[in-house]
Description:
single chain; alpha/beta; GMP Synthetase, Chain A, domain 3; 8-stranded mixed β-sheet; 7-stranded mixed β-sheet; 27% strand
Amino acid sequence: MTDPSFGDIIAAFGTGPTAGETAITYPGERLSWADLDSRSAARAARLVSLGVESDDFVAVSLPNGTEHHISSFAAWRAGATPCILPTKLPGHELAQIVELAEPRVLIRDGDQPEGVTQLAPGKDDDVGLEVPSGLAAAHWKAVTSGGSTGRPKLIVDHAPARFGERLQGLTNLVRMPQGGVMLNPGPLYHNAPFLFTNLALLASTRVIGMARFDPEEALRLIEQERVEWVCMVPTMMQRIWNLPEDVRSRYDVSSLQHVVHMAAACPPWLKQAWIDWLGPDRIFEVYAGTEGAALFITGEEWLAKRGSVGKAPPELVTILDEDGAPCPPGVIGEIYFGGDAGTNFHYIGADAKLDGHGRLSLGDLGYVDADGYLFLSDRRTDMIIRGGANIYAAEVEAALSECSEVDDAVVVGLPCDDLGQRVHAILQGRGDLSLDAVDAFVRTRLAKYKCPESYEVVSEALRSDAGKVRRGALRDERLQWLRDGKYFQLAR
């Protein structure tokens, strides 16, 4: 029996007993299941009228809101793959990603890059077409990511747009409720918020969306809507925990069954605080990449294995040293995922890092203890994780190097109490180098969250004659400077 397509599932909800019930809410917006069904069907017809065919990319560059969900389901109903783009990209970066993805249609407000058909949200007039039911793209999503080579890349998921064994297994893994209520506090152009809101809708769970995260508003919504499930990054957890205790305790969060956290390492003290607050049975961590490889650990397990990200079966996780040999328990090496991890996706604009046995590396370092639990020791040194978002140093360096005043640039991540890490740029340039001018330039090339938050200028060469940079040593030196009380010029 063929697994149901995403469009058929939503059509069933939109015409069944729950048709009039609320499916999605955002500030000032509400969609019933019937609304989601009818509006996504109308937009799918519009996409087909614009030339969208099976397995085409339909790029979606919209802020959090009902239009984002309507557009995604419209793409699926047209047999296409939603390609999710950030909403506030400078024209240069948007053009790069559109050139890479080659979408048939781009759904967004505002100016468009040349060479792509644009559809503004809300344009769902009857075009006199009826899209066949049951259409399903071979790849259900494509998500953008900054490339480690300095250019963006796409991560294309190989699961079809049908609710089959893999997506059902993922829904069960993260303990998504069936017919329940979930809160989405994150931006829909990030993989996890996009993934989990759509899994929720396919499981007939109501989505409560936030236009942007606010810690007290999140608690208010949890109480008001009786939210059962939420996924947060550690930065969100810390902002909630930093609220005055009388504010935090003002809200009834007893409806919460599971708080899932992922995307960045959670400080042990913060995780312990949440366990003490809500109980270990409600705290659930997922260690995963957009590429699909994943481990998980419950709060109860974490208390016994403090700092671990989960049990790592040897057939799934292998730790390799620099020579490609397996590391014994307790020895740090690069983490490789086996099984089908390397076949669940493909990149556009980059190559997957596979070893000779087809095992996949996401670039993380760690070790497995004698009981088989995985512990992360560090992220890839050229990646900066800011508030759960991955920022590739090479991408930022490439933008900085385009500035005529900069001879060379190295970017490292430095500690940030709020977001975990901040982007720090070390520039080699002439004595008349204007940091204000450099900062203004780079903001025309990169999304705001990728731009450096602090700068310094050096006169010595940043790279060896072979073009290599000792990024770890540069970062460690600056960490010591911070401990000694030295600070850097902040971006304006």
